[in-house]
Structure to design on (624 residues):
């Protein structure tokens, strides 16, 4: 079981309110991602759930029981830290066994669980090494191993992949998703990377400045962002946001259109512009196009190569069904 | 970058200081060894004949030698025990956020800047004197018999004084080490179910191990040669109750004017200090590898 409920939880450091009062419910077995720009309070929120910080106000329920005042160890949650926080003077085996040892399990049971975890995480050959003798990815696995042996009600991850190189990150992303499918345990995962959020989450919680901007599945957030912030944060490359007369024409203060929802043509279209920098990825090409309707360049994503030249005149047509409209407060107009 | 050229250059660069240090050490050392084989007494100026191991024999068989060895051991051991244990405690306390942190930290470090003779005298006269000292006054006002520190427990008193002077050093090194402890490790241990005692034993102490060995090594070398504190407080007495090896050498060569005997004691002290140093280097080397 791992059902977590936050009721009106807030957190202040001194006079600074880092988390504004918020409600959130996380279902058993769900993979929830907290995403938001750096400094928005993601880690703080996770640490509140873990019990490493005390809430200023509100209550935290775990499996229906009030856990607000309970010490971290008794909440039944396991955490994987950004720095991995492995114990450097202990072998990998001792690291993974540490929570079991603290729980007073007998040696045979400890060994059995450590060996199981090591097998799942491909660490069997490294059990007698020290953390300092492992690569980043292996350390990451040890940290995960230390979390899974406890068989917790939920896993908490704080930017676990941010110290890995790009290739390893993609690999570990898959491994963690795989682990979630196999264990079917609740996971709360913090990241500032919207790609990680989109690819891994069952449910994304978008945070900004201590406020939840939107909660929903990755596709909900992609299709129906509740406000301009979410619209700009989710999706890569970023959604184009256009104000001024062009937005007025659509009876909105700001309109948004994703790069993949704009047709580009050399003959005719709604907006005329000149081709700026193009980024060629092989499968796709991103064009940055200067137009009269927007202040900055408009990003357009086209499949394959179009053979457009720098400075060439082109025409853009946003697809009407994918146009997002926002009012003066930045909220979505239905 | 350890290319052949850079290593040669490095050797050339450090050569002057190494040669200077070597001369600095070799000259007095050879003189001491030379004197230790002479009958060289300032009161009986009958020439300085070569007498072989005689000085060593008299120094080692002197009953005060055994007492001095034991006292040296107790002095070093006692001070180490108090400063390391106290240093860890202070480091733990100073690591906590508290009111007036900056001032408290400076106050804890302050005793280290008082010179040994001064602090020993202050302790002797203002705290430990049975009549005028603060401890004596407190004891008297509570109706107890005041303790005559320098008379009844001279060695323990010196241990306390030296510990007071060296506690800041241990605290400083251990506190710095404590600050480099990754807070996330402590939090991880907390989540793993370790209580505050387990966190101390399994996370903090192993983290401090290296700093503790450094403290022990450096302090041992300094404490083997404690002298000023003894000279200004107990003069090694009563009897030989607070005479350590250094003080015994002083007594032999400068109070009994027997330079030969004193030199023999000096050579023995050098050998002992080196044994301790090698032993500690091994220990520290093992710790630094890990
Ligand atoms: N212990 C603390 N004391 C004071 N301010 C803190 C503390 N921890 C975090 N903060 C502040 O809270 C805000 C949110 O921090 P954090 O939750 O770490 O952000 P994120 O993980 O989203 O990058 C930041 O502005 C940070 O400076
Ligand atoms: Mg963070």
């Amino acid at each position: 079981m791992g059902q977590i409920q936050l009721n009106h939880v807030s957190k202040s450091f001194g006079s600074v309110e880092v988390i504004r009062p918020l409600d959130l419910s996380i279902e058993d077995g769900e993979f929830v991602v907290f995403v938001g720009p750096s400094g928005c309070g993601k880690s703080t929120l996770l640490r509140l759930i873990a019990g490493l910080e005390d809430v200023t106000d509100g209550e935290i329920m775990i499996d229906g029981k009030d856990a607000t005042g309970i010490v971290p160890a008794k909440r039944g949650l396991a955490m994987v830290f950004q720095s991995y926080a492995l114990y450097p003077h202990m072998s990998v085996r001792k690291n993974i066994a540490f929570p079991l040892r603290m729980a007073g399990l007998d040696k045979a049971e400890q060994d059995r669980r450590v060996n199981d975890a090591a097998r799942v995480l491909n660490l069997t050959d490294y059990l007698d090494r020290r953390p300092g003798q492992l690569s980043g990815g292996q350390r990451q696995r040890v940290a995960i191993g230390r979390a899974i042996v406890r068989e917790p009600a939920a896993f908490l991850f704080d930017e676990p992949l941010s110290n890995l190189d790009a290739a390893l990150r993609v690999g570990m992303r898959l491994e963690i998703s795989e682990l979630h499918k196999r264990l079917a345990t609740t996971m709360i995962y913090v990241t500032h990377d919207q790609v990680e959020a989109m690819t891994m989450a069952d449910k994304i919680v978008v945070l900004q400045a201590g406020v939840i901007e939107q909660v929903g599945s990755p596709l909900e957030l992609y299709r129906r962002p509740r406000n301009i912030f979410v619209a700009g944060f989710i999706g890569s490359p970023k959604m184009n946001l256009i104000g001024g007369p062009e937005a007025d024409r659509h009876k909105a203060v700001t309109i948004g259109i994703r790069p993949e929802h704009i047709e580009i043509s050399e003959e005719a279209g709604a907006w005329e512009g000149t081709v700026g920098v193009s980024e060629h990825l092989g499968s796709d090409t991103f064009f940055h196009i200067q137009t009269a309707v927007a202040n900055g360049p408009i990003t357009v994503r086209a499949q394959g190569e179009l053979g457009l030249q720098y400075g060439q005149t082109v025409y853009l047509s946003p697809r009407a069904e994918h146009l997002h409209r926002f009012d003066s407060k930045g909220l979505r107009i239905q | 970058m350890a290319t052949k050229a850079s290593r040669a250059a490095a050797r050339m660069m450090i050569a002057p200081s190494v040669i200077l240090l070597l001369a600095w050490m070799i000259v007095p050392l050879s003189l001491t060894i030379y004197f230790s084989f002479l009958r060289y007494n300032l009161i009986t100026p009958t020439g300085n004949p070569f007498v072989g191991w005689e000085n060593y024999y008299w120094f080692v068989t002197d009953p005060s030698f055994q007492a001095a060895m034991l006292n040296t051991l107790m002095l070093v051991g006692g001070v180490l025990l108090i400063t390391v244990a106290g240093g860890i405690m202070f480091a733990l306390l100073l690591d906590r956020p508290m009111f007036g942190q900056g001032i408290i930290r400076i106050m804890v470090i302050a005793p280290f800047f008082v010179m040994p003779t001064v602090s020993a005298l202050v302790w002797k006269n203002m705290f430990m004197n049975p009549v005028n000292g603060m401890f004596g006054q407190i004891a008297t006002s509570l109706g107890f018999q005041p303790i005559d520190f320098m008379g009844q427990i001279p060695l323990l008193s010196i241990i306390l004084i030296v510990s007071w002077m060296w506690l800041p050093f241990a605290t400083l090194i251990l506190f710095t080490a404590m600050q480099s402890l990754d807070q996330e490790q402590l939090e991880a241990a907390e989540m793993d179910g370790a209580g505050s005692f387990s966190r101390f034993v399994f996370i903090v102490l192993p983290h401090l191990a290296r700093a503790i060995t450094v403290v022990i090594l450096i302090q041992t070398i300094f404490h083997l040669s404690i002298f000023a504190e003894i000279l200004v407080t107990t003069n090694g007495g009563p009897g030989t109750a607070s005479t350590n090896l250094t003080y015994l050498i002083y007594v032999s060569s400068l109070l009994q004017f027997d330079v030969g005997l004193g030199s023999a004691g000096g050579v023995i002290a050098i050998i002992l200090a080196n044994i301790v140093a090698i032993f500690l280097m091994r220990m520290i080397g093992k710790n630094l590898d890990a």
Q: What stands out?
A: The pocket of magnesium ion (ligand 2) is lined by residues A 42-43, 159 (CB under 6 Å). Chain B touches chain A at residues 182, 184-185, 187-194, 198, 202-203, 206-207, 209, 290 (CB under 8 Å). Residues 197 and 204 of chain B are 10 Å apart (CA to CA).
